[in-house]
Backbone:
């Protein structure tokens, strides 16, 4: 389990709390760097496999969980079980390096609010997170 990082504490009570979940430190670092440019986004935790994602999501109650669909998991938790075990207030943003029908199907079966291709995160991640937060605010 990985928790923390340079942007790990909410910047304000109105921050969009994000939990990052990817088995690659390089990808997590890149996402942290990308999101650090947004004053309204706070990374509250990180995980490198599915079991810690579930625990951290329930402990930290993030608005958005950015989840790599193809992580290994030492506890043999399949990605299909992740959404059902998450805090119900969290929106799931699924991502994969493979922009194929299988990945999109997994994301849909998870109940992900959005699916992003990792190859285009630099231009799609921030707008998608902001849209998810806006949708949550409108519902609540």
Residues:
């Amino acid at each position: 389990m990985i928790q923390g990082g340079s942007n790990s504490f909410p910047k304000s009570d109105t921050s969009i709390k994000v939990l990052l979940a990817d088995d690659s430190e390089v990808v997590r670092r890149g996402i942290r760097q990308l999101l650090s440019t947004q004053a309204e986004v706070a990374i509250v935790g990180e995980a490198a496999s599915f079991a810690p994602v579930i625990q951290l999501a329930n402990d930290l109650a993030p608005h958005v969980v950015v989840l790599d669909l193809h992580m290994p998991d030492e506890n043999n938790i399949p990605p299909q079980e992740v959404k059902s075990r998450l805090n119900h207030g969290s929106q799931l943003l699924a991502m994969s390096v493979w922009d194929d029908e299988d990945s999109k199907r997994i994301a849909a079966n998870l109940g992900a609010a959005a699916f992003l291709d990792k190859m285009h995160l630099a231009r799609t991640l921030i707008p998608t997170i902001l849209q998810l937060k806006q949708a949550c605010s409108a519902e609540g």
Remarks:
- The radius of gyration is 13 Å.
